[in-house]
Amino acid sequence: MENQNAQNVQNTQAAAPAANVQQAAGNTQGAVTVSAEDIAAALDARHQRTERSVIKSFAEQNGVSVEEITKLMTDYKAKQATAIPADVQKRIDERMRTADNRLISAEVRAVGTELNIIDIDAAFALMDKSGVKVGEDGSVTGVKEALEALTAAKPYLVKAAATSAGTGSTGNFPRTGGDNSTDYAARLDEARKSGNHGLATSIISEAAAKGIYLR
Q1: Domain-embedded: residue 54
Q2: DSSP 119
Q3: Is the pLDDT of residue 115 over 80?
Q4: Dmax over Cα atoms in the chain, in whole Å?
């Protein structure tokens, strides 16, 4: 009987650690009750405490009130929240410039035709655009003044009035109308100076079609 009791005690002692281990494991699993929201709230609270500490420090160092520093930070955060990201603003600006250039180009063609400009592409490339403005409604101002200033400095860009017959020989190439070799050479020189290689090629091709060969 005594041997049986001793065996029961040993079995109980052996089973106890296992039971304790199972209980500990159960407690460990049940202890994870913290949610991500709780962690975020704790971090936010810590951030707020840190921010208040920094604001107080700045106020003391600069001799101003905590309320003034707090208002300054509040205004800054509001401004940052409504600010457009730099990369987005860059794309907006590029699209606006493209749209403005199209409007200006269309106005140059319309006014250039009125002024009898021979090569409107050359005029657009050479004209001073600093005084040309595009309004919020899409209206363009300053083009006529810019083109008039350009043609005054470079009269070969304007088609001359036809001369009456019998006023004298003009040679193989007429000296009016912008179709003689001198005019083409002058236009080509201006295009090259402005770095507009496409326009230069176009002038060379146009002249060649009329038997004028430029280099």
Answers
A1: no
A2: -
A3: yes
A4: 153
- Reported as type and span, the H/E element at residue 134 is strand 133-134
* Residue 167 DSSP symbol: S
143 inside domain: yes
CA distances, 183 to each of 100, 198, 205 (Å)? 31, 18, 14
**Which domain does 184 fall in, by range?**
175-215
Q: With 90 as the cut, is the pLDDT of residue 145 above it?
A: yes
CB atoms within 10 A of CB 109: 16
- 213: exposed, middle or buried (Cβ count in 10 Å: 0-12, 13-18, 19+): exposed
CB 119 within 8 A of CB 190: no
Task: Report the half-sphere exposure of 162 (CA within 13 A, side-chain side).
Answer: 2
Say whether both 182 and 136 belong to one domain: no
Q: Does the pTM of the predicted model rise above 0.70? A: no
Non-local (6+) Cβ contacts of 129 within 8 A are 104, 146
> Which pLDDT value is given to residue 71?
86
As a whole number of Å, the CA-based R_g of the chain is 42
CA 184 to CA 203: how far, in whole Å?
7
**What is the total count of domains within the chain?**
2
